[in-house]
C-alpha cells in the first residue's frame, strides 16, 4: 500500500457519488479546520457530489454539528450530518419504540431522542445525583416505563446513573441496551485524549452483564440509513476518516470505498504495520491532498 | 451432586485444618448473621481449627471487618480477615513498590494501601471533582510519581477519576493497573443489588484499553498469601462461600476443598444446572447445616 497518486484520486472522484466524511481528525481538530477541507468540500459540491458528515460523537445534535461546520466556513445542513445519538433515535423510531429511554449521556443525545418523539429519563437531569447511603436500605427506584437504556459519552457520569441503568436492565429482561458508540477515547482538547463513550458502555456491561446493541461506526446502521434515505448504492459511497477501527472498518464491512487520512489518530507506521488488518482503498496525509487534482478534473459534470 | 450428608460433613471436619469463609451471603447478609454461623465458628475454634474470612469487598479495611464480626458475636482479629483491598496493598508490598498509587475506590482501600506504606493520590479526595470544560484546552494534570492505578468499588465514581486513571495508564507504559476485584454487583441493602467494583474496572479498561492484574477472588493471590503466612498446605484448606464464579472457582483453581452455601446469590437450581461448570466438593443450605454433626465429633482434639 502506498499513498494515493493523482491517478488514484481522479479514479475515486469518478467512482463515488457520495462522500462520507468523519469529522474530528478528518474535517477539523477541536475548533480548527484541517487545511484544504473547506476547498475540497466546495470542489465536491461544484460537481454535485453528495456530502455527508458522520461522527460517533453523541454529545452534539445534528443541528449543532451543522452550525459548527457552517461557522467554520463549510455550509452544511443538519440533514447532511449523522451522529451516533441521531442513530440511536432513528433506530428506536424504526422499531416503533414507544416506551421511555433512560439516558446515560449528555444534552445532544436527549435532544435527538426527544426530536424522535421518545420520552427521556436521566441524562443531564441526573447530574450530581447521589444515593442516600445513610438509608438503612439504600435503593434506586426506576421508572417502570423505561424500555431502553441508551448510552453515549457522559462527562458527568456518576454511580447513581450507573445503578439506575443497571436496575432498568436487570429488572426487565425486555429492556434494550443501546450503545451510541464504543469509542475508547475522544478529543476535547489538543493536549490529551479523553475517556470516550466506550467507558460508560463498558461500565454498564460490567455491572449489568448485558451486551449492548451498537449503532455508531463500525456498526452498519448509519450507512444503511444514509443509503436508504438518499437512495445511494453502497458501492457509490466512499468513507473518509482518520480511524481504522471505526471509520475504515465501517466502510470496508459495508461495501463502501475507504480513504484513511493521517490528520487524526492514525500514523502512517500504524497503518502500514503488519499488525494492522484494516486496509483502506486509499490513504493520504489529509483531505487537502485531494486538491492536487483540481486542475485535472473535467470542466463539465459529465463524469456524474 | 447432592446435598452434603452428615458423613460428608464429618469427613470435611477431619480433612481440613483451615476454614476460609466468604463473608456476605455466607457469614452475614447485610447486618444480620446467617443462623448458626456464630455457633459453627465457635465449634471450629473449640477444635483449634484455623479460621479466615476472605471477602472481595474493598470498601472496608480488615480492622473494620473484624470489628463488625466481633460486634455480631463472632470475635475475630484483623489478621484473620483478608479483603481485596488488603490484597492490593500486600501485592504492591511484595514487589517492593515505591511509587504512588492512584486510587479509584473508597476509604478502606486508601487505609490498606497507607498501612502498607504506599502514598495514595485520588480516592475520597477526588470525590466531586470536575474538569473545567470552560477551559479552551481542558486538561487533567496527573502526578508523574503515580506508578499504579488501583481500582476497587467506588460509589463516588466520576469522570475526573476515570480520566485521571486513564492518563496515568496512557502516559506511562510502566504504570500498573491493579483491580481489587471484578465483581459485577454487591449488596448494600436487601432490596436490590448494586453496581460492584467490576463496573469501575470495566470502565477503566474501556477508556485505557489496558488489562488489569486481578488480586481478589478467583485470582490466586489471597490464598497464596494466606497459606504462606500461616504455613498451611492448600489441600488442608476448605473455602466456604455462596458464589460459584468467585469463591468456589477460587478454591477449585487453587487446590483447596470447596463448600457452596445456598444462603447467598446461588440457588440450588443454578448449582445443579447443566450450564454450571463449577462444582464444589460439598454444598448445603447454609453453614448452620454443619451443626448437625456437632454431637458426632470426637470429644478430644485427636483429629487434629
Automatic annotation (TrEMBL), chains A, B:
It catalyses: 2-phosphoglycolate + H2O = glycolate + phosphate. Substrate binds at residue 217. Coiled coil: none annotated. Its cofactor is Mg(2+). The active site is at 22 (nucleophile), 24 (proton donor). Divalent metal ions. Mg(2+) is the most effective. Belongs to the HAD-like hydrolase superfamily. CbbY/CbbZ/Gph/YieH family. PANTHER family: 4-NITROPHENYLPHOSPHATASE-RELATED, PHOSPHOGLYCOLATE PHOSPHATASE 2. Keywords: Hydrolase, Magnesium, Metal-binding. Its EC number is 3.1.3.18. GO terms for cellular component: cytoplasm. The keyword Hydrolase applies. This is Phosphoglycolate phosphatase. Mg(2+) binds at residues 22, 24, 242. One of its GO terms (molecular function) is metal ion binding. InterPro entries: HAD-like_sf (IPR036412), HAD-SF_hydro_IIA (IPR006357), HAD_sf (IPR023214), PGP_euk (IPR006349). NCBIfam families: HAD-SF-IIA, PGP_euk. It holds the Pfam family Hydrolase_6.
Amino acid at each position: 500500500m502506498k499513498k494515493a497518486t493523482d491517478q488514484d484520486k481522479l479514479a475515486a472522484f469518478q467512482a463515488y457519488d457520495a462522500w462520507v466524511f468523519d469529522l474530528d481528525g478528518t474535517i477539523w481538530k477541536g475548533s480548527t479546520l484541517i487545511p484544504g477541507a473547506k476547498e475540497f468540500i466546495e470542489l465536491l459540491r461544484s460537481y454535485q457530489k453528495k456530502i455527508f458528515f458522520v461522527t460517533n460523537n453523541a454529545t452534539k445534535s445534528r443541528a449543532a454539528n451543522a452550525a459548527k461546520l457552517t461557522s467554520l466556513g463549510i455550509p452544511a445542513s443538519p440533514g447532511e450530518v449523522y451522529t451516533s445519538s441521531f442513530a440511536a433515535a432513528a433506530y428506536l423510531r424504526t422499531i416503533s419504540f414507544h416506551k421511555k429511554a433512560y439516558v446515560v449521556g449528555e444534552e445532544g443525545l436527549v435532544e435527538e431522542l426527544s426530536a424522535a418523539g421518545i420520552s427521556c429519563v436521566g441524562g443531564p437531569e441526573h447530574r450530581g445525583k447521589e444515593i442516600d447511603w445513610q438509608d438503612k436500605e439504600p435503593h434506586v427506584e426506576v421508572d417502570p416505563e423505561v424500555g431502553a437504556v441508551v448510552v453515549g459519552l457522559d462527562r458527568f457520569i456518576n454511580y447513581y446513573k450507573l445503578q439506575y441503568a443497571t436496575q432498568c436492565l436487570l429488572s426487565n429482561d425486555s429492556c434494550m441496551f443501546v450503545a451510541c458508540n464504543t469509542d475508547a477515547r475522544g478529543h476535547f482538547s489538543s493536549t490529551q485524549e479523553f475517556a470516550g463513550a466506550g467507558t460508560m458502555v463498558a461500565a454498564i456491561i460490567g455491572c449489568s452483564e448485558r451486551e449492548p446493541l451498537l449503532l455508531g461506526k463500525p456498526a452498519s446502521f448509519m450507512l444503511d440509513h444514509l443509503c436508504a434515505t438518499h437512495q445511494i448504492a453502497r458501492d457509490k459511497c466512499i468513507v473518509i476518516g482518520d480511524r481504522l477501527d471505526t471509520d475504515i472498518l465501517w466502510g470496508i464491512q459495508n461495501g463502501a470505498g475507504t480513504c484513511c487520512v493521517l490528520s487524526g489518530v492514525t500514523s502512517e507506521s500504524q497503518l502500514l504495520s503488519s499488525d494492522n488488518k484494516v486496509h483502506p482503498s486509499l490513504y493520504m496525509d489529509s483531505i487537502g491532498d485531494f486538491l492536487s487534482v483540481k486542475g485535472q478534473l473535467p470542466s463539465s459534470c459529465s463524469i456524474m
